[in-house]
Each structure stands twice: as structure tokens, then as C-alpha cells.
Design goal:
This protein has about 240 residues and is mostly beta strands. Helices cover about 15% and strands about 40% of the residues.
Length: about 240
């Protein structure tokens, strides 16, 4: 890993401390235009999310009124009832997004895949930079919000299921993540600028509790509307 990545991980609490935990759990409140656009308004507005920190695994519980919980394990997604029985599942969920645009509506399994994949990536950032096969490169300086940020280009390996293989992470002078960029491959490569703030110290790890995602223009600047997705986290625990 580069010195820049080392500094970023240290600013968020350090890789050694992060690896002493196995899961991160939080109460999740979501909003924004995306969910209605996909025909899934209200399903995951208020729920809890749990992700693993040592493997690809994520769960939303409840999954609206559709299921007691979802289970994302990278290549597989499932919706489970209160007894753990499978309501619906797919071993090849990503393939179902072929030909999708931003306006294409999702079925329940597709929503579960996107939500699990997204939250696993978000909550493991920036420590996912230390994951085997992840390539991180210093992409230079970026001026925004009256600060000079460092941009880190990130490429994820095929071994990790993420909705965008090529992403970028911007960090402020304090080493904390300010923004993520990605083109959502499973939604017609829709470009997004994903801002994070309101950091909390949870068991020695710095975690942003607020996320806002907006459209991103070709020059890298973002639009102030529409608000594509909003995420608020509370009651965060690391175990």
C-alpha cells in the first residue's frame, strides 16, 4: 500500500484496530429519488444494516414487508423469512441487470443485491483499500469546498462483487474520506458523486454517519440536485 493509503487508514482508526472487529451494524434511514425511480420507494427507508468486515456479507433487516432479512454474500443474494427459510434467491444476480438504464425498475432481488453490495462497500471504506487484489493509486489533488483533497483511484478485483469496478476516493487534509465517485455499472454506468460527513468515533474507528449522492458531470464536478440517495446511520456498533 502507498504512504497515502497508510495515512488514510490511520486517520480512520488504523487497520490493526479495524481487523479486530468482524461486523459493523447500524440503524439505517434512507431517502432520495433513486428508490422511487426503481419502483421501490419506501422499502428500505427505515431498517437496520449489518455488514461483515472480513468477508463479503451484508444484510438488511427487516427487508421492508417483503422479508425478515436479506443476505448478500457477493455472488449470491437471498430474501429470508423469520425462520431463515428462503423466500427468493439468485446465484447470479448481477447478470439480471444486463441492459439496465437508470430508469429501469428493479425486482426485489435486484434491490437486495444493490443495497447489500452498496452498503458492504460503503461501510468497509476506506479499509477495503487493504483488501487483497484492490489496487489504489494517487490520482493527484482536487479542490472542493475550500479544501485541497487527495484523489485515490481504486480498482476492485473480480473476487469482490461491487457495482462499479473503477471508483475514486477523495480525502481531506485530515485524512478522512470526503467523497466517493463511481459509475454504477448495473444502472447504465450512471455517474455519481457520493459525499460523506458527520463523523462519529465508534470503538476507536471514525465512521461517517451521513451520506448524500448527487449526479456527477464529465469534468468531475457534481450537481446540487437531484438528491439521488440519502443515508443516515445511527446506533452504530462494531463487534
Amino acid at each position: 500500500m502507498s504512504a497515502l493509503v497508510d495515512d488514510v487508514l490511520r486517520a480512520h482508526g488504523g487497520l490493526e484496530r479495524w481487523r479486530s472487529f468482524r461486523t459493523i451494524q447500524a440503524t439505517l434511514a434512507q431517502g432520495g429519488a433513486l428508490w422511487g425511480l426503481k419502483g421501490k420507494a419506501g422499502v428500505l427507508d427505515q431498517t437496520s444494516v449489518t455488514v461483515a468486515t472480513d468477508r463479503q456479507w451484508a444484510s438488511h433487516a427487516p427487508f421492508g414487508v417483503i422479508a425478515a432479512r436479506s443476505e448478500f454474500t457477493g455472488r449470491r443474494i437471498a430474501l429470508l423469512d423469520p425462520s431463515g427459510a428462503v423466500i427468493d434467491a439468485s446465484d447470479h444476480p448481477r447478470a439480471s441487470f444486463a441492459g439496465h438504464t437508470l430508469e429501469t425498475e428493479w425486482n426485489d432481488i435486484q434491490l437486495a443485491f444493490f443495497a447489500g453490495c452498496a452498503m458492504w462497500t460503503y461501510l468497509n471504506t476506506p479499509f477495503v483499500l487493504a483488501w487483497d487484489g484492490v489496487v489504489a493509486e494517487d490520482a493527484g489533488a482536487w479542490e472542493e469546498n475550500g479544501e485541497t483533497w487527495r484523489k485515490i483511484g481504486v480498482h476492485y478485483p473480480d473476487s469482490l462483487e461491487v457495482f462499479s469496478k473503477a471508483q475514486a476516493i477523495y480525502v481531506g487534509p485530515d485524512g478522512l474520506v470526503r467523497r466517493l465517485d463511481y459509475d454504477v455499472e448495473i444502472a447504465g454506468n450512471t455517474p455519481g458523486a457520493h459525499y460523506v460527513d458527520n463523523y462519529a468515533d465508534v470503538s476507536g474507528i471514525r465512521i461517517p454517519t451521513r451520506r448524500r449522492i448527487f449526479p456527477r458531470l464529465p469534468d468531475g464536478t457534481s450537481l446540487s440536485e437531484p438528491l439521488v440517495v440519502s443515508i443516515e446511520l445511527s446506533d452504530i456498533t462494531l463487534r
